[in-house]
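Handout, section 4.2: multi-component inputs.
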Amino acid sequence: MNLDPEVLRREIKEYIIEELNLEDITPDDIENDAPLFVEGLGLDSIDALELVVIMERYYGVKIPNEEVGRKVLQSINTMVDYIIEEKGQ
Amino acid sequence: MRIISSALISHQDTYKKEAFSEVISQETYLESVLHPEYKDIIPPMERRRMTDAVKMGLACTKACLDNFSEITPGAIIVGTSMGSSAHTLKFLDSIITSNGGLISPTPFIQSTHNTIAGQISLFLKNNRYNNTHTQNSLSFEHALFDAYLLDREGVDHILFGSSDESENVLFDLFYYLRAKKHVKKGAGAAFFLTSKQENTDENIVVKSVEPNSNVVDTHSILSSFLDKNEKTMDDLDLILYSSYSNNIPEDLVAFPENKLVDYTSLCGDYFTNSGFAFGYAIDLLKHRPTVKSILVYNNLVETNLGLTLIEKH
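Output:
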């Protein structure tokens, strides 16, 4: 697995667009630090579950509880940081 | 029960097309459903989770209410045989391929049959009576019957209809099990709005509807239905039929052939295609002055017989 942050950011954006079926949105439209929920992409609670599935399915990274989920799923950057942290150990 | 508005999405050019019944034929049947531009109807963040069955239902709902924006439906009733079958298959497939891992929630949530009626309710912000009927080839008739009973209880402006999407794997499986060949694979949606207020000019009314299952003798059921409605076959101007055998049903062979229409040849084979026939009948009654009484004879499945009598008064 390539843990280069730039590669991961690109990959995650592509997975989000594909799995969440976001029409008319490209990876370049998603800002790395922008909030994923409510503002920014405007995702909802079902999307949160989809993001958890993406993290586990594509990166083998589990989100153990809601508290961790709230921190990790804030933005693309926080997701990438968590993957690097978990896989780097 | 009076019908004041209708909308169809089908394998023909029927969406928002007045008098389509005068131009469609077997020759104008399209290989796939002629979908409207859903981008213009459903916001993208809602549309992204919807399969065709839901999108067709919402688009038909909107078309039905186009000229009645002040109306709040007193009930929303949907007949669907397969629901969002694409999501059902995706969900089942993910159970097998996930190897015990997490499963994507969206296909599971959206695969339930009542997703269509639920999404219509959310779309209209309508929290009144909401029901879904899943009764194989009689799903539409059961929805219509529910609407008919509510109308008699005094509920006004009932929005009812049917929606089923095309899913090749399920379709092939069903027709393998039914040993039926050379059929047109169909899909579509048909929705209608009722009113209790009589029009001074002309009214299209549902005189009677009967979903019959576990049928052995279709002839006696048809005779009894006509008797109850004080009709003979001679009183009918047209019979729209579907047949499990692909031939004219024996009950109807004595009826003049030029007054018989095999509606499955027009809209394709799917379990709620009697919804298309119902919409086709309404369009015919509106635009063909000589036609005043139509029977929809749904025998798509051998042991099911749906009978619907629609008239112009």
